[in-house]
Amino acid sequence: MENIKDKKYYPIREVAQLTGVRESVIRFWEQNFDELKPIKNRVGQRKYMKKDIDVILAIKKLLYDDEYKISGAQKRLKELLEEAAGEQMELFTFDEKMKNRKLNEIRNDLQEALAMLESGG
Amino acid sequence: MENIKDKKYYPIREVAQLTGVRESVIRFWEQNFDELKPIKNRVGQRKYMKKDIDVILAIKKLLYDDEYKISGAQKRLKELLEEAAGEQMELFTFDEKMKNRKLNEIRNDLQEALAMLESGG
DNA sequence: CGCTAGCCAGCTGCGCTACGCCCCGACCTA
DNA sequence: TAGGTCGGGGCGTAGCGCAGCTGGCTAGCG
Question: Residue B15's pLDDT is what?
Answer without folding.
Answer: 96
